[in-house]
Amino acid sequence: MASSTETILKSLLFVLLGIAGLTYSAQQPQSVDAYLSSRWVYQGESVRISWYANNSNLVRCAILVDDTPTEHINLEASGVRYLTADTSCKVTVTCQYGTQLKASKSLQLLVKPIKQMT
User: pLDDT tens, 65-114?
Assistant: First the structure.
């Protein structure tokens, strides 16, 4: 009898630890890392932006240029996209976890004008 009570208590303990672990991981701060292939590009040249969100559960990401959404929305938790810029701008990758938690990373892209041949 003691053996079955001990087994039940151990099972209950593992269930409670599992629930506590899920709650703990859900409360962890979310983050996203983003990188540009180059900080400087010439006007009209494409730059590669890559990102990785640290938690891919129920996450959707978007790329914004100067805080304006681009066509790159509803993206996976990690990926690569190419942007073409005509002027210097702030590139932001923002990811949303569920309905409340957000993480974002902003990068400055500097665009050099194309030198005109005279």
Answer: 999 988 888 888 889 999 998 899 999 999 888 777 788 999 999 999 88
Q: Please give the residue range of the domain that contains residue 107.
A: 31-112
Whole-angstrom Cα distance, residue 66 to residue 85? Answer: 11
Helices (H), the chain: 2-27
pLDDT of residue 48: 94
Report how many domains make up the chain.
2
For tokens 């593992």, the residue is 14
Amino acid at 29: P
Whether 71 and 111 have beta carbons less than 8 Å apart is answered as: no
Which parts of 38-100 are beta strand (E)? Answer: 40-42, 46-53, 59-65, 68-69, 78-84, 89-97
* pTM score of the predicted model: 0.69
53 within a domain of the structure (yes/no): yes
Does one domain contain both 79 and 106? yes
Domain-located, residue 118: no
Give dist(CA 103, CA 61) in Å, integer: 9
